[in-house]
Amino acid sequence: MSSASTAVIFILITTTTTTLFFLPTTTTAAAPPQSSFKKIYAFGDSFTDTGNTKSVGPGGGFGHVSNPPYGSTYFHRPTNRYSDGRLVIDFVTQSLSLPLLPPYRSLRDPRAARNGVNFAVGGATAIKHAFFAKNNLTLDNTPESIQTQLRWFDEFLASQGCNGTASASAACGAAVEDALFWVGEIGVNDYAYILGSEISGDVIQRLSVATVTNFLEALLKRGAKNMVVQGLPPSGCLTLAMYLAPEDDRDELGCVRSANNQTSVHNSIYQSKLDGLRARYPEASIVYLDYWNAYRSVVRNPAKYGMKETFKACCGSGDPPYNFNVFATCGTPGAAAVCPDPAHYINWDGVHLTEGMYRVLADMFVNGTFSSPRFSTLLA
Predict the structure, then answer these.
(1) What are the catalytic residues?
(2) 138: pLDDT confidence band, cut at 50, 70 and 90?
(3) How many CB atoms lie within 10 A of CB 18?
């Protein structure tokens, strides 16, 4: 692979979330009970980012997300979300009768953010940016990590008059009480950075799981009582993975076996760390969302969930068989083909998902069985 190809792939991968709005599927589930949550604080990467990427600055690999056809399905304009419409966090927010979360970097007056803030940013890693820079594994497009988002959260707390933990002052308590802490998937970008390098996946797994676990504990120490954390999706089912991997590297679903094995092991270790946090903080509720198995369930039986295309990107280059080319990605001048009905596609741009898929996943998490313990326990 040429250095130019590697650069484009790095950029692409690392830009990788009132009444209930979920569309019905062939399974029926009751809507969640009325929630007492008054605010949500969200963290993660491009699967959860509702607009923080826009403020990364010029010269990065993110300009395409500000171009049509991003946002075309629901917002009818680009909103710097990596999809044609809403993300999982948007559906969950709306199901809790809360307004959509503003991205932290767009806040003019943080004191007015009474219903929460989204700190997730596209391309974010779990491991600190300095690790990748030290090992010459970065193009400096995404210096933000999960630690950056913790710093932003602390800045936000300070704007609310809080400079400590929930027990430090009334202002601190008010900032975190009645709040749902949503930690979207984080770590896929860490693995993407080491493509073609001598850094092993085991090193990334160990460092990223430890870093995110420490991040979760930092939130708990700041007073978080209700927390939702997502595991990694089966990255081997993304269009980009299918495009890059040899055809003999496939699992029983047709996804890339090596990539899915990596994320599966990562998730198992991550869940064991969550068990440790639950033991140390018994007063907190920590719900794990099984992104890996939920996604694979849709790939296994797409028609059940209203899907027709499991691997082909909706928005892309027009190149067969995946409508995908790393040099003509969605939102760039070379992207010529957009599917007529994104709701029937799992993949939007080859790395991120369609609003239709995010809608299905949100329903599986909130109303289904792909959360442990069940999401409804937070709403009791």
Answers:
(1) 46, 349, 352
(2) low
(3) 9
Question: 17-31, 216-230, 270-284, 314-328: which range is least confident on average?
Answer: 17-31
Contacts of residue 264, Cβ cutoff 8 Å, sequence gap at least 6 = 234, 292
Q: What is the pLDDT of residue 110?
A: 87
Token digits for 214? 């420490």
Residue of 245, 265, 233, 248 whose CA lies nearest to 195:
245
- Contact predicate 89/118, CB 8 Å: yes
DSSP state of 270: H
CA distances 314 to 53, 78, 86, 237, 336, Å, are: 22, 16, 15, 14, 11
Rounded to whole angstroms, the Cα distance separating 59 from 65 reads: 13
Give the residue-averaged pLDDT of 146-162: 95
Name the token pair of 332: 């760039």
The sign of the torsion formed by the CA atoms of 169, 170, 175, 179 equals: positive
Q: Average pLDDT of the chain? A: 88
DSSP sequence for 167-230: TT-HHHHHHHTTEEEEE----HHHHHHTTTSS--HHHHHHHHHHHHHHHHHHHHHTT--EEEEE
Type of residue numbered 246: P
- pTM of the predicted structure, to 2 decimals: 0.90
